[in-house]
Amino acid sequence: MVHLASIPTDAQVDPVVDGLKKFKFERVPSIFPDEDLEDEDPAVISVYGSKYAAQDLPKIEMPEKEMPREVVYRMIKDDLTLDGNPTLNLASFVTTYMEEEAEKLMVDGFAKNFIDYEEYPVSADIQNRCVSMIARLFNIPAHDEKTNAMGTSTIGSSEAIMLAVLAMKKLWQNKRKAEGKSTDKPNIVMNSAVQVCWEKAARYFDVEERYVYCTADRYVIDPEEAVDLVDENTIGICAILGTTYTGEYEDVKAINDLLVEKDIDCGIHVDAASGGFVAPFTKPDIVWDFRLPKVVSINVSGHKYGLVYPGVGWVIWRDPEFLPKELIFNINYLGADQASFTLNFSRGASQIIGQYYQLIRLGKRGYRKIMCNLTRTADYLAMNLSELGFIIMSKLSGAGLPLVAVRLDPRKGAKYDEFAVAHQLRERGWVVPAYTMAPHSENLKMMRVVVREDFSKSRCDALLQDFKFALETLDKMDERKIEDHRQHMVQQAANKWRKLSVLGGPNAAYKDQDDHSLQGKHGKTHAVC
Ligand SMILES: *Cc1c(COP(=O)(O)O)cnc(C)c1O
């Protein structure tokens, strides 16, 4: 019998686990009287009085027996409290707030598999209503009140982009075959600052990536360079409406005009993942969409500024002529014929219903008011960060996404970098990513704050206060302390990542591929998404 008061001998201490010398829980005796815990009545037990509270949650093997639902609910909820707080996560564009009525509709839709068109024809029709509204928002050409728009909902912009790349590749192959030419070496032209899903699409579908590189003072695609990279094997050019790094809108019109002027047969796909629900409201005069004849397809994330919880994106083609028929499946499921062009078969209907709610609940004026507020908050944040000595790298007054990208002014000679500032903010609960700019931009470091719908003026003030505090703290540290602190944070991050694995499960076989799967070739991480 081990008494709690007795001093442990070395033999009783377990080997080091996770760098921590610790006793096994089983060695700590229970002082509970003799009743048999196995006889606990699930109907009366309390969560924290049950035997489960004294056990680890099952992690490796599926448990043999059931657990009471209240216990499971509470234990998983407790486990999740160690996740970050989504509203303080200023790294992400993805929606963290929806109205209760929208949530109720979405919960009602949980049990519907969207692909069962026959069973859920209204959900299918709601998708088509959203496609029509979004295509018109992007100024799809109308012929006698009708448009030829084709489009579909997806899980997000990544799937939308995969589909768009497949359509461009197939279209190019068909053209080449008709001309009796080789289809061995398709390529796609894009900015080196593309979101990682473009690299994925190119690699998954065997399309060569042709990059226009950013420079120390240009973070968007150079239209001339882009068009110069086009050759007979180019399936298309990608232009980004709202880059992930600085939120800038690339000059789609300039690319379009060059292609027209030089009479080059090459289409443009606009990656409007973030900008598609912003620019039409804040800057309707920027011509980036189907008003340009060379724009063949556009994607947008419903779960970013489309204001829906994660799991929905959209892709629209200007005309069926740009969506080769071979890619479309007419699925006859439970009796109904419906065209389908997606990578997934089954998916939830909730996000599509949520998108429809937002489109008709807010209308154009509602979106405009929200996007204009966000732009104003972003400007306010930028002006104040500039006051604190940061260099502002993003655009103001709606000329880009409502986000603020900054870097420290090298002339100030600070002994710390952007990563140190991010770490300081992290200690106060804020997630503000620091990252290195796309290649060929002289290893510029920067930080980015995404202004989302639920980032109000007063939350912005709280962030500014903490920015100020972070700089004051760092200014007071000497170089060695900053370095110690940095090492500590690096170690912590490494520990965290060691435990997580991209593919889930114990996939040691992929260990040395981590660099690729997590970061892509250009060092992109999940933090910048
Ligand atoms: C977020 C983003 C993507 C990926 O979109 P998901 O909806 O997260 O799949 C692609 N491109 C850009 C420019 C983005 O901002």
Automatic annotation (TrEMBL):
Domain of life: Eukaryota
Alphabetical keyword list: Decarboxylase, Lyase, Pyridoxal phosphate
Family: Belongs to the group II decarboxylase family.
Gene Ontology biological process terms, A to Z: L-glutamate catabolic process
CC cofactor: pyridoxal 5'-phosphate
EC number: 4.1.1.15
Record-given protein name: Glutamate decarboxylase
Root EC class: lyase
Gene Ontology molecular function: glutamate decarboxylase activity; pyridoxal phosphate binding
N6-(pyridoxal phosphate)lysine found at: K304
Cellular component terms (Gene Ontology): cytosol
Organism this protein belongs to: Rhizodiscina lignyota
SUPFAM superfamilies: PLP-dependent transferases
InterPro entries reported in the protein's UniProt record: Glutamate_decarboxylase, PyrdxlP-dep_de-COase, PyrdxlP-dep_Trfase, PyrdxlP-dep_Trfase_major
Pfam family, one: Pyridoxal_deC
Reactions mediated catalytically: L-glutamate + H(+) = 4-aminobutanoate + CO2
